[in-house]
Design a protein that fits this description.
elongated, five-stranded parallel β-sheet, five-stranded antiparallel β-sheet, Rossmann fold, 2 domains
Length: about 250
């Protein structure tokens, strides 16, 4: 069995010790090669220590976990972010498609995160930049979205997404450049996070960027005509909601 090394960062001493102990209880094969409670301490130690997995608290007393990643740019660790259970933070991680565990976490949450970290690649710079932007600027609406496909992670501009279509537990994104991206998450998942950035759930199978709606046609049960000439059905129970949203 491969031996993994880890490094733990949290600015609360009790939380740092608890997380370290929980990691070793869940997976004794993971060796903890370092701990730190601040940006300065972590950045200094990580210049020489090269963990496979970095457990990283976001909000630290002297900065953020993102500061550590910028100070030590050649760090090749897979990152498990640890964050307080706060709606804005959760939204940020969903937009960036970066894994995280919420405080207070359960053993199951931590175990799942560790298992995923062992097989995943480290987050791309574009994902981390997107995550940082949303976490550190809570008043600004996100402008980009990470899409995790079976082959790669693609960061797209939200303004270029025309619509999304459900395909069982998958979602297909239709972009302005006529490309399509298939993602292994449900349409409800994206509907929940995109509703605040001009997207309308018009049908059980369709999510539409309001900016691309050309007109609402009342005939044939009601449907939307988009600027790319596609026609999208509107469910009967959504009709009044959509009409009001378009006024």
């Amino acid at each position: 069995m491969n031996k993994f090394t880890s490094f733990v960062v949290d600015d609360i001493p009790e939380a740092l010790e608890m997380l370290s102990n929980d990691i070793q209880q869940i997976d004794p094969e993971i060796e903890i090669i370092g701990k730190a409670s601040s940006v300065v301490e972590a950045s200094k130690l990580l210049q020489t220590k090269k963990p496979d997995i970095l457990f990283l608290d976001i909000m630290l007393g002297d900065g953020t976990g993102f500061d550590i990643l910028e100070i030590v740019p050649n760090l090749n660790a897979k990152v498990i972010f640890v964050t307080a259970s706060e709606e804005h933070a959760i939204k940020a991680f969903k937009f960036a498609a970066v894994d995280y565990i919420l405080k207070p976490y359960s053993f199951k949450d931590l175990s799942t995160a560790i298992s995923k970290a062992k097989i995943q690649i480290k987050p791309r710079t574009a994902q981390l930049n997107l995550l940082k932007q949303i976490v550190t600027k809570p008043s600004e609406k996100p402008t980009r979205l990470s899409l995790n496909t079976s082959e790669k992670i693609i960061v797209v501009d939200i303004k270029d997404i025309i619509r999304c279509k459900a395909d069982n537990n998958y979602t297909t994104f239709y972009l302005q450049d006529k490309s399509k991206i298939l993602v292994s998450k449900t349409l409800k998942y994206y509907s929940d996070i995109l509703k605040e950035v001009n997207f309308l759930r018009v049908h059980q199978s369709h999510l539409v960027n309001k900016l691309f709606i050309k007109e609402f046609i009342k005939a044939d049960g009601g449907y939307l005509m988009l600027h790319d000439s596609s026609n999208i059905p509107v469910s009967a129970r959504k009709k009044n909601e959509i009409i009001n949203a378009l006024k």
